[in-house]
Amino acid sequence: MEKGSEKTLTSLAGEGRMTVVLGLVTFIAAFGSSFQYGYNVSVINSPAPFMQDFYNETYVKRYGEYMSEDLMTALWSLTVSFFPLGGFFGSLMVGPMVNTCGRKGTLLINNVFSIIPAILMGISKVATTFEVIIVCRVVIGICAGLSSNVVPMYLGEMSPKNLRGAVGVVPQLFITVGILAAQILGMRMILGSPEGWPILMGLTGVPAALQLLTLPFFPESPRYLLIQKGDEEKARAALKRLRGWDDVEDEMEEMRKEDQAEKAEGKISVCALFTYRGLRWQLISIIVMMMGQQLSGVNGVYYYADRIYENAGVKKDDVQFVTAGTGAVNVVMTLVAVFVVEALGRRILLLAGFGICCVACAVLTVALNLKTVTWMPYVSIACVISYVIGHAIGASPIPSVMIIEMFLQSSRPAAFMVGGSVHWLSNFTVGLVFPYMEKGLGPYSFLVFCGICLVTVIYIFLIVPETKNKTFMEINQSMAKRNGIELPADKEELKDFTTVSVPYSKKNEAGRNSAL
Fold this sequence. Notes:
This protein is mostly helical. 75% of the residues lie in helices and 1% in strands.
């Protein structure tokens, strides 16, 4: 009895510990992959005029005349929109790659989709070819599509349950740091110039190179090693390195339970995910949250931001500094989310985040329509900053954490494929549709975003459960009743149970059949 008590006390004492290995692998994975995503979202905004001049100059050298305005608009639209399109293709590759190559292996291979395009874009001006930039934007998008899904999966599977939320927000933190880095480096006095933009475009390969050199020295996801590869010894060794102590049997047992519960199910494909009753509300929830994240108007707010700042009296040359200031607010508030997500929980941050965005969009609509009133431009600035804060604390970082937590090992890759595809398609749609919305509706465009935020808040309040400090099996059981199924909770039942779930109507029959 004393030994058992001693073991329990040891496990409790070590629970939630951020070890050096876990901290380093979190930093390397997030900086090497998530940082690039944020950097490439923002990197072409500042040097856009100089890059368009390069497109024109190259065209003149080839054909002896300047390209038409329509052709320039089309080529630049492709340069911008091919990035989210590549992200969509990258999301479709997540499932096959993480199941075949592992989480760490996929991240290492993914660096190829960053380093090669970075080199090509860096030499595009010397080579006098703008086509390579457009093609490379697709490839960089594939890199972002993979990393935006694989990094949260990798880190979430390695983290103890009471640090899973905080570690899961770190990739979004590095996305915001990447956006801010691109805004700062893209300033006119740094690299946002005719001579500097090729270097600016090529720098995206630096984090990838660092990750390629350092990540091989860190462990693969223990869940992947045990549940999908069946290698218990490697899984135990990886857990020992990550936790910093030898007693990892409680976590090993929890993973065995998950493995046993999923044996009859096997790997779930995307098609099976859409037809499997036991994951119906989890799937609907990630689709709603991912659509809400991108269709809530974040791109529209940033699109309007420069004009809002100018209307408030900010000089045109100084707008870049205010924009960088907004990026800094985004970083700080995402950092706050890292520290409060385990204390406040996921639901509170989601509701608060989308709620703040909803109110900010509504007030911004009024402020933009009354901009002739002397103090209204300042209200508009306050709305932009409030919106950025709301998105940073909830709408941006938490949906990926929920995908990690609401799905088990066999269904998680397919869930990330669906969530990632919805994310990138919604991003692409907003980029394509918003200019027409802005032209037709003007400031009233934000009422559409306000409505989307409101619907998302209502759905989260009614459906999405709190997942803080719960194991994956406990979360799965909490969703079972809503899905109209029952999962056995007892440890011994899990060992003998030969199917993942049964409808309530067949509970008695399942009870008889499970006594094998």
